[in-house]
Amino acid sequence: MGKENQTFLPEMEPDGPQPGPSWQRKSWPLSGAGSFDDLTQALDPTGMKAALKDAAKKKGAPVDEKAIEAAASDSVRAMMLIRTYRVRGHLAADLDPLGLSHHELPKDMTPEWHGFGPGDLDRKVYIGGNLGLEWTTVRELVEILRANYCGKVGLEYMHISDVEERRFLQERMEGADKSIDFTIMGKKAILGAVIRGEQYEKFLAKKYVGTKRFGLDGGESMIPALESVIKYGGAMGVREIVYGMAHRGRLNILANVMGKPYKVIFHEFSGGSANPEDVGGSGDVKYHLGTSTDREFDGQKVHMSLVPNPSHLEAVDPVVLGKVRAQQRFHDDIGYDDKGEAKHKQVLPVLIHGDAAFAGQGIVWECLGFSGIRGYNTGGCIHFVINNQIGFTTSPQFARSSPYPSDVAKGVQAPILHVNGDDPEAVTFCCKLAIEYRQKFGRDIVIDMWCYRRFGHNEGDEPSFTQPLMYKQIRGHPGVSKLYAERLEQEGVIEPGYLKGQEDAFNHELEEEFEAGKTYKANEADWFGGRWTGLNKPADPETARRNSITGIETKLFDSLGRTLTTVPEDVKIHKTLNRVLDAKRKMFEEGEGFDWATAEALGFGSLLAEGFAVRLSGQDSGRGTFSQRHAVWVDQETEKKYIPLYTVPHGHFEVYDSPLSEYGVLGFEYGYALADPKSLVLWEAQFGDFANGAQIMIDQFIAAGEAKWLRANGLVMLLPHGYEGQGPEHSSARLERFLQLCAGDNMQVCNITVPANYYHVLRRQMHRNFRKPLIIMTPKSLLRHPMAKSSKEEFLGESHFRRIVSDTTEIPDEKVERLVLCSGKVAYDLIEARDKAGLDNTSIVRIEQLYPFPGEPLALRISRMKNLKKVVWCQEEPKNNGAWFFVESQIEQALAEAEAPVSRPRYAGREPAASPATGLASRHIAQQQALVADALGLSIEDMIAADK
């Protein structure tokens, strides 16, 4: 349904209905009437008897009630045995290449446990089509089940409630005819990939002795397995794959899966850069870097990118998912097609984890939680766990409480394939099954590859300090290529000496690339291609940041006013929202009194009308934490949702109430903005210092991503901030932390007090020809403050963002003796107190943009105050918090440039404190009065008297 005639939005997605989690089925639990392999029927003796009678009649055999009774008993017990293998067969699978974790067959997986004695093993039992058989012997049944579920692959899937998903997996795992089979060419290709993986690591170890590389040694089966994801994914409609992974095996993946030239990696090992020398940036270690490339299998080209990441394990996961979601939007790969089939087929996320990190890092669960949530669903992610059976020096029994590192994935009912890493065919089979499952059901799936880490955590460590028995076993354990080559020789696939010949040929290629790496020089950086074409890095920060005009025409302004205040006839909104809309109509009629939320909506709407997209997410973003936004109107009778801005033509608007997560959601939105610079992407904290939970994302990605990895990003963070006596956690967005991270023109930090200025900074964010993260200390009390209003003219024509805002009271410059500089809500407290006290020699100037600091306009403003005697910086935050330590030197420099008679500013604010704010209302009021009085040069008594 087109937007132009659509009043109500689909319940789940603005761009098409979404089913939510695919495990949320209205038909569950089953009624019992279904195919024979639905266990609710299969384990019912009455149903079993009926099935046996039908089978007898079809064969024309007489129906013997006693025989039917006995046969039904056998069948029920046989089905229980089958079910036990389906649930617990993985516990007896041959998974550990080292043989240190082998488990004996559990008793409940033996025929005896289910009542079959030695004399019953060759008796025919009816199993009604399970395992592809109508009748079988118990002996044959056990042989098939052990081959299916207790070989090199162990499958966990019976925790999945959806019958079709379980049946799909059973059909590919169960049966006498089920085995892992590849063609001769396929086997040779798998061996070739393993050889490249092994020899590449050995070559690096030989050429760069003692250098960290976090090698894949012991897990080389991952190379052909990931290639199969590209091959089979391409055949099933995947056109783009986005990878995220940590250190282990990264250089191998870059070279042997992503196709990054070996000579470039060798150049980086020698201390060179993959980017031209004039590009700038700090760079990063080689095992953090990403790349992008195209690979083609069977005529299908697949674009691949590996997202760069810091050392914080699993932090890249939500970034990958956000990037994938943005790419899916770009490819129209979200929602449903004309046939009603789910999309999410063209862009695939693949996350590669370490076993200890997958179990230990909470961000993994946050990302799994996205898998079925509207606005964050990516149609299933393939999780590949490199299970070294050890952390850095920590053994599994000390690293987790669950049997497997992958157990956390059961929370979203993801199937889990455990596989022996010494069997590259089995690992490749698992990846083939995984991509098929993902493309069919749009759900996450996990591959847990049991392998080992041949050396220490990095190549300089001595692992025998802490795991002597494991590493004694590893030292005598042959490599994957040798084991697999011996197997292929026995099968007659390769001749003796084939392995050595392939190794020599590949090493010769590496030697040539090594020599080429000595003279390699990068000739271009890849950060402004694709969707980023036309954008660039600002040549000069000060010139680039001079304000462009961001006002709009009256016609568009009035049109947006109608959109934001018109309630469709079939929408029954809340009575309080009616009053809010009445107040908005009055604003547009009179052209005065525009508040923060209306200014924001005008900013969003005008960008949409110009063809940009806007994506806003946060824990309560639809309504707004403070009931200020009302971007979503909920019908009070049906709970259907209507979003006014969704009806604006040309652009695309999304607003999502996110999961109760900061770390994961902020990372997701950063990844989204990374992929799509044409969308204004905003993440809103419920309260500003809730961003504490996402500090890794702020430190490692938002503040430093461009410097480290040449990856620009225009993400906007909205952080409610201001001291209203709401206690330590609801006052401060930790402004000081962001300012401490500011350097090298890396991002923007604003503390805005004027609604129109907020509108302009949002529009400026998209109208510039570069992208920088934007951190906004958004207000709480100013959302409805009578002084925090804007007029219509401030949104129109040649208006623009003001980095500094002069006084609301007209005081001649020559009369100004005291200049109070401040930022944020305290400005209005100062203005009110100053005006009540009748101070006509005190000017209050607001710094709306703290970084990049507006030194030039501030110096120009100060230069006109010829009789200046005192300059004060006033802030609400304690002295060790807030902006003071950042702005002090900046103000000094502005004073010097203005040739002012004052050389240094003085501080006025709260005393240093461990807690950001007091939780006592009376103490808060006293502190606030004191700091305002101090800034204005008044005594508390004088200020209180003036207030009366």
Automatic annotation (TrEMBL):
Cofactor list: thiamine diphosphate
Coiled coil: none
GO molecular function: oxoglutarate dehydrogenase (succinyl-transferring) activity; thiamine pyrophosphate binding
Region (Disordered): 1-41
Gene Ontology biological process: glycolytic process; tricarboxylic acid cycle
Tree of life domain: Bacteria
EC number from the UniProt entry: 1.2.4.2
Subunit structure: Homodimer. Part of the 2-oxoglutarate dehydrogenase (OGDH) complex composed of E1 (2-oxoglutarate dehydrogenase), E2 (dihydrolipoamide succinyltransferase) and E3 (dihydrolipoamide dehydrogenase); the complex contains multiple copies of the three enzymatic components (E1, E2 and E3).
Reported function: E1 component of the 2-oxoglutarate dehydrogenase (OGDH) complex which catalyzes the decarboxylation of 2-oxoglutarate, the first step in the conversion of 2-oxoglutarate to succinyl-CoA and CO(2).
Listed name of the protein: 2-oxoglutarate dehydrogenase E1 component
Origin species: Croceicoccus mobilis
Organism ancestry: Bacteria, Pseudomonadati, Pseudomonadota, Alphaproteobacteria, Sphingomonadales
Gene name of the record: sucA
